Amino acid sequence: QQRVLVTNDAMCRVGGIYSAAAATKASFLHYSTSNCAPPKADIITVRDDTSGIDFSLSVYPSTQNSVRGTVRDSTGQPVPSRVILFPKPPGTQPPATTRFVHSDTLGNYEISNLNTGVYNVLAVPYSNFVASFFKENAYGVIHWQQSDSIVASGLLTNINVGVVPVVSPGLTRITGGVTALSGIPITGSRLVVRTVDGQTVGYGVSDGTGSFSIDAVPTGQVTVYGDRNGFTAAQGTIVIPPNTYTINSNIVLGGNGPTLLEEESVLPCAFELHQSFPNPFNPATTIRYSVQERTRVVLKVFNILGEEVASLVDEVQDAGSKSVRFDASGLASGVYFCRLEAGSFANTKKMLLLR
Fold it and tell me: Within 209-292, where are the H helices?
């Protein structure tokens, strides 16, 4: 697969927190440095001159399929946004991949050179509006299961996404975590807070540990909705008392994650070894990793003396997101190391077995 390396200089405010993106007219939009999805973009904190923010861009496929539309609110005003196409259903042939673009200042977007397939469209406004899915003549659709699917075949127009504003009149911060039924934390989950009368008063996205924080929520009864593609949406109702500045609410999404076909339809932008979960563990934990391109993959576990105690993977694998279960039933408590080798990539994570 042809790739393009992009480097450039930019003036940034010292102390600022940023994410960075790059694209060309012939290549996908990618976020730095190891991920192409906005929720998983590397966070860059500028304390001094910063270098090494490089991009490896994938070239568009040679297809004539395009999707056009506008992101707007219920009054017809344009809302500049990021627009994401998620492949649906899994296993669409030829394989579809998640695509990202940015709209112009009038909320107009176009995504070209799409693989033929079925997609959901999600608009993520830059500020003051909640992320919403495309559903014809609807506004503020926050669950992917309730959205309209589109078929990318030829030129598809008027795929207009309706969004609703986030009103933040309160003082309370809602914090918590998002997990699957298996207990694994879910990154990139969308959290929406609404009052009894349906007003949206908060929005957030879970980070790499599954944690989230939503500010300025008012007192009274509110419902926290959680959603991520491939999982079943969930919600929880809480009552925020007066003069409460922080309150906790955890969300457990249905299902244990996307199917293998769903995960592998979104091709990783880089090789990556994730921290095992749970950690500490007893007696088993799940190890997740990403394979950027077809190559030989070796995944092994070592004890603190450097002795190999388990060989979990040793084979040629296609690109995709993978997971393997490590059962340490026969091992003693202590520190262990999981090491992934894939092509020229190698990384090690520490795990703690507690009996």
Answer: 260-265
Is the pTM value of this prediction over 0.90? no
Pairing mode of beta strands 200-205, 234-240: unpaired
Both tokens of 314, joined, read 């040793």
Cα angle for residues 104, 109, 112 (degrees, 5° grid):
130
Q: Which helix (H) or strand (E) segment is 210 a member of? A: none
Give the CA angle between residues 1, 61, 126 to the nearest 5°: 100
Distance, C-alpha 348 to centroid of its chain: 23
Distance of CA 257 to the CA centre of its chain: 12
* Neighbouring C-alpha atoms within 13 Å toward the C-beta of 25: 0
Task: Report how far residue 302's alpha carbon sits from residue 310's, in angstroms, rounded to the nearest whole number.
Answer: 7
Cis peptide before 38 (omega within 30 of 0): no
- Residue 53: pLDDT above 80? no
Q: Are 54 and 33 in contact (CB under 8 A)?
A: yes
Q: Give the count of alpha carbons within 13 A of 36, CB side only.
A: 24
Bridge pairing between strands 150-152 and 17-18: unpaired
| Other beta carbons less than 10 A from residue 236's beta carbon | 14
Query: Higher confidence at residue 248 or residue 35?
Result: 248
Most confident range, picked from 55-64, 253-262, 319-328: 319-328
What span, in angstroms and rounded, lies between the C-alpha atoms of 354 and 262? 33
Three-state SS at 137: coil
